[in-house]
Each structure stands twice: as structure tokens, then as C-alpha cells.
Amino acid sequence: MSRPDTPLLNTVAGPADLKRLDDRQLRRLAQELRAEVISAVSETGGHLGSSLGVVELTVALHAVFNTPMDKLIWDVGHQCYPHKVLTGRRDRIRTLRKKDGLSGFTKRDESEYDPFGAAHSSTSISAALGFTIGRDMGQATGDAIAVIGDGAISAGMAYEALNNAGAEGRRLFVILNDNEMSIAPPVGAMSKYLSQLYANEPLARMKSLAEGFEAALPSPMREGARRARQLVTGLPGAGTLFEELGFDYVGPIDGHDMDQLLPVLRAARAKATGPVLIHCCTVKGKGYVPAEASADKYHGVSSFDIGTGTQAKAKPGAPSYTSVFGTALTEEAARDPRVVAVTAAMPSGTGVNIMADRFPARVFDVGIAEQHGVTFAAGMAASGLRPFCAIYSTFLQRGYDQVVHDVALQGLPVRFAIDRAGLVGADGATHAGAFDVAYLSNLPGLTVMAAADEAELVHMVATAVAHDSGPIAFRFPRGAGTGVALPERGTPLAIGKGRMIRHGEDVAILSLGAHLGECLIAAEALEAEGIGVSVADARFAKPLDIELLLDLARSHRALITVEQGARGGFGAMVLHELAAHGVFDRGLAVRTLTLPDRFIPQAAPAEMYADAGLTAADIADSVRGALRPRGHVVSLKTVS
Ligand SMILES: Cc1ncc(C[n+]2csc(CCOP(=O)(O)OP(=O)(O)O)c2C)c(N)n1
Ligand SMILES: CC(=O)[C@@H](O)[C@H](O)COP(=O)(O)O
Ligand SMILES: [Mg+2]
């Protein structure tokens, strides 16, 4: 027995401990949990608003269901901090998103309470249905519960899963966590539809409840539910969209009111025979005034002062690549009315909000819908517009078939502005922009550029505007630029032409993208040892500057390529060309420095690059190794 003044949270080692708490104590626990999350994130930074919005839901789900046997699957996983605290990770919660610390998302190898890893959105219902089938086929797994936000449910995958789950008709729980926010205010017809489900009605009155659950509810709620069905549908027998898809629809309920959450979850758990969707209305940032009051509800924050909510500011310095892109795009849009922009729910993350401020009718937020966003841009390109599809490298993976089938195959001039290229830091491996050079450079007709600094980025925006003959992509990293002077306006680059940065006699370093600075540091160190180093900026992964490449290959003893991307990208393209031109036959030593063939865990970006073997010192080491006599051997540096 704990003393009455002992925080209940101190008595909870795991979800099993919630089973002995009564409803009043669960309410108190939720308050303590909220305070703990605010306190931890004030130190670590992270996705605070989303986590605060699910505090009561987290307590109620763990109190009612039997995790880890029952599989609780958080969509995106960015709201899982309270879940981590309750599932035995409280002692490590202040290591969130740090090197060797807890992930900011759910992760299978972190805990048995994280049955399915995430960070990209809208996967939870599919995964939950998979567990459901596993259960029904005799695997040792209980109920599956997907918790998905109103933003995440805008993505196609979620509907594919609802469609499938509704037809399967198996017992499965989907909790729709509707806080009327994505990262930005949510967009789209579905968002409007969800709002209509509870417009003008107090949440305490549930508008719709399947017959089976009604019977299991306390009587005042039962009566409210019956009346509510008629209110929401207009007809006693008519259903919501979810019901039409085969789900029992329960709600909307107030997702912060334990007196609604607990009985509804208990009733659903006791009675469900098929798929059930429980619609919970929540508030992003709930219970922390600065978060609730801010425009972005503290979706993602740096460390902050709890009293004031003031966040730590980045040191003043060079503008971010994102803002340079947004400004350059806006200036191009001012000159050319055909320039339009597409974002998939990330207007500020991608910088297109800068253009939207000036040309709101020419910026399209499609919601979390990268696949649609790419094909939508392809349609606009086919119509004669000049669309910029601004999507992070990692999220463009979602739209890959659309890039291939709708854009590249038809040679449509969609401009892909690929932010967050390379390693991004605290979000870790799920958000690393590792693969875009590889997955774009292999596509016929696609031009692929990488900016070495923010001035180059301005020129690449101009290059993309002018490029009407086919698709073109340019990539740039997260965070601050190098501080280089920015041009008054961008000048289109010659397609497929790189540039020499410095000349030396012994070895050539050919850099693609924002690791040019590290290459130059390595060159300085090598010069000090008497090794002459040329450094070139390839600018283009495709088409490659063959003339420059062959020139470097012929006039140096070794050639080293460097990129912020995975194997199969720029270095591989270079190797193809060198082989095709018979350069290896003449004994050139080659190294391709890429990210290693493994996922790099979260840390500060510099630490991640150190882990990846891509520091300036690593580049210099590689040069030294390449200059050691080896005969006619092509060696790929392997970092494991
Ligand atoms: C495929 C994909 N696209 C974009 C994102 C970036 N992203 C992360 S959370 C988020 C908003 C999610 O909104 P919602 O599901 O409503 O959750 P909330 O933050 O409101 O709790 C977005 C756009 C992502 N994680 N995955
Ligand atoms: C959870 C998610 O996917 C986003 O919130 C992401 O963390 C944003 O990353 P940036 O901070 O790089 O915009
Ligand atoms: Mg939301």
C-alpha cells in the first residue's frame, strides 16, 4: 500500500500495476503522468503536443487492455512518451531522442510494449490487422489496438487498411485520436467530415454507439448514445462512413474524460466481435498552457523553460537550407506565374509556407498523402504548370511508384525539392534521408542535383524552374547552411556539369552535396602531410559530368567519392562510368564513401556521421589508404 501522498506514478512499474487502481486513482495518475512528460521533454525536447494529447488515453488503454499480450500500436509513434513512461521506461525518459537513449518513436527492439515500430505515418491499422490475423491463426497474441490521429488518417494507407479490416470483419480496435491538428492545421474533406461528427454537440453526449456496446454502458451514457446516433446520422438506422466500411463506430467521446474513456473502452473490449472505431476528441498540447496556446501546439519543441514555455533557440548563424529554399522558390514564383508548390502536410518543415504567405492560391497542402502529392504534381506538370513537389527525402519513399510511373515514365517536369537529405539527428534512422540519390538516379531521364551549400541551392531552384524537358530533383540537408553569401538571384546551372573547387596532384575527391566542407577540411589536412588533393563538387548525380570525372581519373592516382547517402547512389553511378570508360584498367585506386550498409541510430548529426565513418578524418584516412600501393584493385570502403 502506498501512502496517500506518494505519487501514484512511483508505484507503477508497468501496466499491470494499473489494474489495481480505481477510476479515481487512474485520473490522478494521468495528471502525474502529464507532469512527468512535460518535465522530461522540457529537458530533452521532442514531440510534446501530441504526447500531451493522449495522456488520459494512454492510461485508459493500459488500464483496460492487457498489454503486452494485447498489441497497442501508436500511429507515427511521436505521441508515445506517456506510453513509454508507463511501460517501464520512466527511468530512461530523459534520454529521449539522444545518442544511446530512448527513441522518440515506438521501436520493437526497445520494449515488448512496442509491438510495431513506426515514425512514418498511417501504418497502424494495417499492422494491427496483421496481428489480428496472427491471433486468429493461433499465434500468441491478444487484441490489436491501433491509435491513429486525424492527420495520419488522411493518408491512403489508412483507407486501404480500413477497407481491408472492414471486409475481414475480425475483432480489431481503432482509436481515432482527433485533435483537429496535424503538424499544421489539418486539411481536406475527411478532416471536415470528422469535425461534422461532433459539431454543435457536447462531447459528453455520444452521438453513435453500436447496439452491443450500448447495453454494456452505464445507463445515462446508454441513453445519450441512442439519441446521439440519430443526431449524427440524421436517421435512426443510418451510419457514419466508418460504419459503411464495416466498423462499429463509437463516439465521439471526450478523450480527456476518464468517465467516458474507461466505460467505453471496457464496453468495447467486453462486447466487440468485429472491427470497432472509437472516435476520441482530444486537444493537442492538453494541460500545458503554452502548448495549448501556441499555433503549432508544441508539435516538436527544443528544450524549454517549464514556467514560461520559452524554448531554447538555435545559436544565431546562417539561415537554414529550408528557409533559403522557401525564399528562393517564392522569388521564382513572383517572376513566373506557372510556379506552384505541393507539400504533404509539412508547409513549414519544407519552407513552402514562405511562398504560401505571398501566393496562397499557388501552394497546395495535400495532407499526409505523398503518393497523391507526387501524381497531383505530375498532373499539374502535364497541364503546363511548373510544380515543385517539396517532400522530405524519407517521406518521398512513400511516393516512389508515383515518381517512377507517373512522373519519370512520362518524362513530366516535376521539380522535387528534397529536404532533410542525409542524416537528420534526433529523429534517427526512420527520418534519415539516405536513399533518394540511389532511388532517383536509377530512373531514366531524371536529373538529380545535390546542393553543396545554400548559394548552390538558390541556383538549383533556378535550374529546376528552367528545366522543362523532364523531371528534376535537388536535395539539401536539415539545419543551418554554411553561411556563404547568397546570390541576388539564382542562375540556372549547366545540366550535368560539376565544378572544380581546388587543384592538387595526387588524389581527387569528388563530392556530391553538403559534405563538401568535410572534403575541404580533409584536403587541408592531407596537404599539410604533402599530399596534393583536388576537390570537385559534382553538383549532379545524374547526368554525371563525365568529362570532369575522366579528367580527375586520368590526372590523379586515386579518386574518392563522398556523399551523404546510402550505397547504390552517387558512388555507384561513378563506378559504372569509370568501368564503362575502362579507367580501372589503368590502375586507378577508387574509394566510394557512403553511409554504411546499416541504419544509423539517433544522435546529433555530427555524431551520426562519425558513427557512419564519414567525418573529415575518415575521408583523409580513406585517401591515405587509397594511395598505399595496391595494384589493380578497386576497393569499396566498408564501415560496419
Ligand atoms: C508518411 C509521413 N509523412 C509525414 C510525416 C510527418 N508527420 C509526422 S506527425 C504528422 C502529423 C500527424 O498528425 P496526427 O496524426 O493528427 O497526430 P497529432 O500530431 O495531431 O497527434 C506529420 C505530418 C510522417 N511522419 N510520415
Ligand atoms: C514525427 C515527424 O515525422 C515529424 O514531426 C518530424 O519529426 C519533423 O522533423 P523536422 O523537425 O525535421 O521537421
Ligand atoms: Mg491530430
TrEMBL record:
<keyword id="KW-0808">Transferase</keyword>
<feature type="binding site">
    <location>
        <begin position="151"/>
        <end position="152"/>
    </location>
    <ligand>
        <name>thiamine diphosphate</name>
    </ligand>
</feature>
<dbReference type="InterPro" id="IPR029061">
    <property type="entry name" value="THDP-binding"/>
</dbReference>
<keyword id="KW-0479">Metal-binding</keyword>
<dbReference type="InterPro" id="IPR005477">
    <property type="entry name" value="Dxylulose-5-P_synthase"/>
</dbReference>
<dbReference type="InterPro" id="IPR033248">
    <property type="entry name" value="Transketolase_C"/>
</dbReference>
<feature type="binding site">
    <location>
        <position position="179"/>
    </location>
    <ligand>
        <name>thiamine diphosphate</name>
    </ligand>
</feature>
<keyword id="KW-0414">Isoprene biosynthesis</keyword>
<feature type="binding site">
    <location>
        <position position="288"/>
    </location>
    <ligand>
        <name>thiamine diphosphate</name>
    </ligand>
</feature>
<dbReference type="Pfam" id="PF02779">
    <property type="entry name" value="Transket_pyr"/>
</dbReference>
<dbReference type="InterPro" id="IPR009014">
    <property type="entry name" value="Transketo_C/PFOR_II"/>
</dbReference>
<comment type="pathway">
    <text>Metabolic intermediate biosynthesis; 1-deoxy-D-xylulose 5-phosphate biosynthesis; 1-deoxy-D-xylulose 5-phosphate from D-glyceraldehyde 3-phosphate and pyruvate: step 1/1.</text>
</comment>
<dbReference type="GO" id="GO:0030976">
    <property type="term" value="F:thiamine pyrophosphate binding"/>
</dbReference>
<protein>
    <recommendedName>
        <fullName>1-deoxy-D-xylulose-5-phosphate synthase</fullName>
        <ecNumber>2.2.1.7</ecNumber>
    </recommendedName>
</protein>
<keyword id="KW-0460">Magnesium</keyword>
<feature type="domain" description="Transketolase-like pyrimidine-binding">
    <location>
        <begin position="319"/>
        <end position="484"/>
    </location>
</feature>
<dbReference type="GO" id="GO:0000287">
    <property type="term" value="F:magnesium ion binding"/>
</dbReference>
<dbReference type="InterPro" id="IPR005475">
    <property type="entry name" value="Transketolase-like_Pyr-bd"/>
</dbReference>
<comment type="function">
    <text>Catalyzes the acyloin condensation reaction between C atoms 2 and 3 of pyruvate and glyceraldehyde 3-phosphate to yield 1-deoxy-D-xylulose-5-phosphate (DXP).</text>
</comment>
<feature type="binding site">
    <location>
        <position position="179"/>
    </location>
    <ligand>
        <name>Mg(2+)</name>
    </ligand>
</feature>
<dbReference type="GO" id="GO:0019288">
    <property type="term" value="P:isopentenyl diphosphate biosynthetic process, methylerythritol 4-phosphate pathway"/>
</dbReference>
<dbReference type="GO" id="GO:0016114">
    <property type="term" value="P:terpenoid biosynthetic process"/>
</dbReference>
<comment type="similarity">
    <text>Belongs to the transketolase family. DXPS subfamily.</text>
</comment>
<keyword id="KW-0786">Thiamine pyrophosphate</keyword>
<dbReference type="Pfam" id="PF13292">
    <property type="entry name" value="DXP_synthase_N"/>
</dbReference>
<keyword id="KW-0784">Thiamine biosynthesis</keyword>
<comment type="subunit">
    <text>Homodimer.</text>
</comment>
<dbReference type="InterPro" id="IPR049557">
    <property type="entry name" value="Transketolase_CS"/>
</dbReference>
<dbReference type="GO" id="GO:0008661">
    <property type="term" value="F:1-deoxy-D-xylulose-5-phosphate synthase activity"/>
</dbReference>
<feature type="binding site">
    <location>
        <position position="150"/>
    </location>
    <ligand>
        <name>Mg(2+)</name>
    </ligand>
</feature>
<dbReference type="InterPro" id="IPR020826">
    <property type="entry name" value="Transketolase_BS"/>
</dbReference>
<dbReference type="Pfam" id="PF02780">
    <property type="entry name" value="Transketolase_C"/>
</dbReference>
<feature type="binding site">
    <location>
        <begin position="119"/>
        <end position="121"/>
    </location>
    <ligand>
        <name>thiamine diphosphate</name>
    </ligand>
</feature>
<feature type="binding site">
    <location>
        <position position="78"/>
    </location>
    <ligand>
        <name>thiamine diphosphate</name>
    </ligand>
</feature>
<feature type="binding site">
    <location>
        <position position="370"/>
    </location>
    <ligand>
        <name>thiamine diphosphate</name>
    </ligand>
</feature>
<dbReference type="GO" id="GO:0009228">
    <property type="term" value="P:thiamine biosynthetic process"/>
</dbReference>
